[in-house]
Structures are given as C-alpha cells and as structure tokens.
Amino acid sequence: MSAEFELCPGRKIGGSNPCFIIAEIGQNHQGDIEIAKKMIRMAKDCGADCAKFQKSEIEHRFTKHALERPYTSPHAWGPTYGAHKHHLEFSHQQYRELQQYANDIGIFFTASGMDEMAVEFLHEINVPFFKVASADTNNIPYLDKTAKKGCPMVISSGMQSMETMHCVYQTVKKHNPNFTFLQCTSAYPLPIEHVNLSLIPEFQKEFPDIPIGYSGHETGIHVSVAAVALGAKVLERHVTLDKTWKGSDHAASLEPAELAELVRAIRTAEMAMGSPIKQMLPCEASCHSKLGKSVVARKPLQKGEILTLDMLTVKVAEPHGVRPENIFKLVGKKIKVDLEKDATITDAMING
C-alpha cells in the first residue's frame, strides 16, 4: 500500500484515506474575481476537497517575444498573448482575497506555481501544498527549489516519459518525502484512447513509496471514477460554470452538476472497494439461509456404512450441514446414524 502523508492540515492522502479531490479552476474564472469566488463556492458545495488556481509572474514565465506575439485565437482576451495572459492573471492581493474566501467557507485553497517567482509568492501566503503543472515537471531547477521549501507537492506527469519521472522522483525525494505523482495526458479535451489509466498501477509499481493520483482532461466522469477504483489517491479535474464560455479549458471541464455527481460516484466507488478479505458476510446470511447448499444422502444410509461418493449429493437442505466444498472429505468416513434419502449430513454424524 502506498505511503501516506498529510497533504493539507488534518487531511492525509495515500493508504486507506479517501481520494483527495481537487477542483481545478485554473483560469476558467475569465479574469473576474467574483466569478472566481462563485467557482470556489461551487467546488465546496459539490464536495471537492480543494479549489485550485494557476499563478504566474508573467514576465518570469514568458519571454518578451512570446508575450508580444499576436494572439488571434477565438479564446483570446487581448490582441497579444501577453495582453491575454495579463487579463486572466489575478494580483497578489486578489489571491489573498480568494484564499481568505476559501478559508471562510471551509475548503482548501492552492495554485499551480507556473514559474519560480510564483512559487515564492505561494509559499509566502502559506498554501498547504504546491501543485506542479506538467509543463514544469521536467524543469529540474524549479523542482529542486520548490522541493527544498518542504511543502507537500502534487506533480502531474503530462508530456513526460517514465525515465523523466524517475529523475523527478530522485530530485524531489532528496529534499522532500511528501509528494505524489498524477498520471496525466496533456490534451484538452483528452481523447479516451489516450487516457492510459493502466499507467496508474505502473506508477504504483515504479514508485511504491508515494501515493499515485490522476489528473484528467477527458469529458464526463466515468474515466475519473475508474482511476479511483484503480487506486488513484488524488484526483484533479478542471471545473467551470459554463462550458460554452470563452477559454480553451472549458470544453475539458466539468460543470457543477457533473462535479457533484463525480464526487458522489467516487465516494460510492470507495465504499464499494470494501475489504480484500473474501469471506461470507453477515449481509449474505439471509441468502445463504434460503439458497445455500449442503451435502445430503443420495439414498438411504445405514449406521456404520463407509461413505462413497455415489452415496452423497448436494442440495438446498434443511437444516444446513456439511458444506459442498467438503464433500470429498467425507469419502471413506463411517456414518454414525441411519439416514433416509435427502437427509442432511452434518459433521456430528461422521466418525473421524
């Protein structure tokens, strides 16, 4: 079983702890802080554990040339990529306001630090954990500096190889034992054939001492529920208030009714996982009483006879007797009583 650690105050992940569900608001707030607050409230009301944003210090994340290039996408919020990104970026004070709002309504709050300076700010406001976006997973200097801060880390694996993930593991582990990897494919929305849920058990084999989770960009909820059934201990899904809004992430996001149903389905799946010990349960007693079978006499038997297989059969009987799987153990044993045809054979009737 994967190691467990406290991802947020009072909330552990891994082991037998419930899956930690992150509602990824990202930049689906349209640059409007009131919409952002509504989305935090929605995440809380739907049962998510954490509302997450994306924080950039834009000039530290992008080159001057990248920010100046024309941006003509139908999702653009400005004529250049820089204008677009600035429109969607909240200030430090706005982040503090959102964090306080999340604290007030009782949901954990964090963000992906999209560059080293953003991580510095998130550390300053004391987020419970750092989320590492897939684009920074192979950014080894960034990982090294972030891990040294000692805060738990959730690290997505989109666009990376398993070889790279081993390098990431070694980089982070030497400074910080509390981190998790998320299986992720970075496409929005994600075609089902590229989800690769089979990588969850593969990650569990490769990194048995850390919890493994899933970051999904597919449409619908079924794949995410399957990820939890496969052992995902953290689940991240993008959320929106309206999939038709402008922005490239909305199509791969869950609206409120879907998020609420996802949370319910995950909690149901977790309950259904139950125990790995196979045994007859108390809830099966009624069915067993009516339909459970026992060994009975195929024909009349006389006291002292040595039992052979052709003297025995299996039927629903009253009372219950020797269980069917033990029928071969009766062969060669001596019966201690006279029995009529169809009579139940019990342990007490057998010598030896």
TrEMBL record:
Keywords: Transferase. It comes from the Eukaryota. Pfam families: NeuB, SAF. Residues 294-352 form the AFP-like domain. One of its GO terms (molecular function) is N-acylneuraminate-9-phosphate synthase activity. The keyword ATP-binding does not apply. Coiled coil: none annotated. InterPro entries: AFP_Neu5c_C_sf, Aldolase_TIM, PseI-like, PseI/NeuA/B-like_N, SAF, SAF_AFP_Neu5Ac, SAF_PseI/NeuA/NeuB. Its EC number is 2.5.1.57. Gene3D superfamilies: Aldolase class I, Antifreeze-like/N-acetylneuraminic acid synthase C-terminal domain. GO terms for biological process: carbohydrate biosynthetic process; carbohydrate derivative biosynthetic process; N-acetylneuraminate metabolic process. It catalyses: aldehydo-N-acetyl-D-mannosamine 6-phosphate + phosphoenolpyruvate + H2O = N-acetylneuraminate 9-phosphate + phosphate. The keyword Transferase applies. PANTHER family: N-ACETYLNEURAMINATE SYNTHASE, SIALIC ACID SYNTHASE. This is N-acetylneuraminate-9-phosphate synthase. It comes from Sinocyclocheilus anshuiensis. The gene is LOC107686966.
